[in-house]
Amino acid sequence: MLWHIFSYKARECESDEQARNSFKDILKDNLYSFYLFHQYKDTGYIIDNKFRAFSFDDLSQFITDHETADIYITDEQFNWTFVLTHEDGWLGPYFCILHR
Question: Which InterPro entries match (predicted)?
Answer without folding.
Answer: DUF4275
